[in-house]
């Protein structure tokens, strides 16, 4: 604990010094910009240039009082310019010496039709209403290979380890290419494969609407990105191909290619990615990814899917997935947009993904409760072969300026086979899982703009999905559950099928005072079929069907209506919503039938206060009812891995919860300072919990419905540009606390308290010269209290160094450190990677030399805690790799 406190003190001292440094020593030019009537002018672009070579030294904008302030490091002669809408630009020479200078300016009025404000330079950052345009050449550091690498270096963008892209704290809706959307929410296929060299500008669309008729009518907080490609590259077919092969490790490779053609009638984008170095290609996510907002027009059915009962896969560790993703992936994506005429557009997508994966795991599971205490040890090696293929077609018909018809159809099929060599407490077990899935989705959306600010949208959807699984064990350890059978092996067949249909009418009416009325009415019907049976093989080879079997049909019909009204008065905005849900539940199992028809009314209310343009405060309350899903109602056990069983049994029930959220934002992501804070309290008046029977050779988990659970969540994010360091500082803090109850081995309900904290910082430079850096650290501390107490403290740190020697030669070094405070030995793990690039621009060729895991760390061990014990697991990692690559653009 002393070590942790000491490190925390050093961390906070560093942050205080960084923040204070911005106010310590600075020579400034400041003043006020006003018009000819002496009125202050806001949002004037103030740019300071060197008088000799016209290089930009610094820039800013005037505040609400027309004041500005620019920091200058050296004395000399400069040119300072002022630009603002409806005013004549003005530039003046100044001589700056080593003292603060006051420079007031008066601008002459000038009529203009352009609606744009230049933030940094005339070409670097431009703001047009709800659009921000970034010229990427101003932000390149030389280490960009794909669009994902490019976005990491652009201001305002945050790219997570899994490829999720955010602008500020908002995840983007999509990434388009020259205004066309090839992938919808599957934008990682694009960002992880398209070459960064093809992109000239990045456009950010704020308050984005997926439907053109809803623009400026719906209350949209979505953000979309558009990539503007270089004009000189868009000649007939163009793209790139790259190949990298291992120098020191046999048969390690990565192949990536993009081919595009943007014609008047048809636009085509084909890509492929083959690699066995653990890299993600973006095709791992399904083609039917859910929409970010379930309340938007046409979102009906977006999160409906069937569940698989068993999955033999690796845990998601805290380090980069490429380090433990022992893969052999082959991906092909074919995408086309056909403009039949001025009114009809057809978009087609084909995605084919093959992969072979392997992982080797060692784990120690220490169970400790008031009734049992024991340790299980496992050694597991899993080999998986996977194939998935999907196709989608979108038909868009602009019937008129006020009518739009959208038809989307998607079909997906996949097969996955897993072989596992498991050793459980010195008992060898062979597992085999054959997993198949098939899904078809059809959706139609008709939109009619009834008036200038009124839209009616009609949506209909049909979804069919099935997931059959065959699972076999050649040795069982749970034989005590079946005393009448001398069990030697077992198999389980299961099939989960889901049918979903729905219709919805959605009216949006934007009033004259910018108030918004939304009315929605609809009906959905979901039918789930679950069949499963566990078959036991005795000593003589005879097959016995156990009592662990299910054959059920679960139907949920929902007739719903909701009304929502947003009213603005001054700087305040009030949102009130009322949901009516009439449920029709029916459950059939082996001739038994149960039905219910409950009616629920759910209110929600939110209030926001815009103190000024840069200060916003919000408060919201909601009350929700959640219907039991299939996994909560099925009435007998299913096997979920080699020794764990699950049963629903909660019956036809609903659970009720209430939530309260307070949020505050300061500044904007486009400014030098941006901060958000949020705290949420959730009260579950009743919820689905578990009663678990724990034995060294098996667990039996039963879903139960009990009362009272509380959760408290909070986070603070600060993003500040430090001028004196020419670097961007990000501070993050979050906490999570929950109190709930469950039962273990038929005990009385016991209270479980789960608390975790996460805090850290990241510092990224924005130098124009040879060198740039990116460093950060993150601490995570968690405690679980029941009849026992379990705690865990981990740390992750990184340091990336980038050297851009010239326009043709770049080198980058990446280092990571992982620290686990609860291990007695091997607490720290270090990783080192590097990449160098040499470009021959005349030939459009780039050579690369890449090294991964240079320290050749072979295994990685991590610790987890829960309310029933502690678990540590170690994985085999991808070995040291040295790749020589070449990329050719055409």
TrEMBL record:
Keywords (A to Z) from UniProt: Cell outer membrane, Membrane, Receptor
Pfam families per the UniProt record, alphabetical: CarbopepD_reg_2
Origin superkingdom: Bacteria
One of the record's GO cellular component terms: cell outer membrane
Keyword Membrane included in the entry's annotation: yes
The keyword Amino-acid biosynthesis is assigned to this record: no
Cellular location(s): Cell outer membrane
The protein's name in its UniProt record: TonB-dependent receptor
Organism encoding this protein: Gelidibacter maritimus
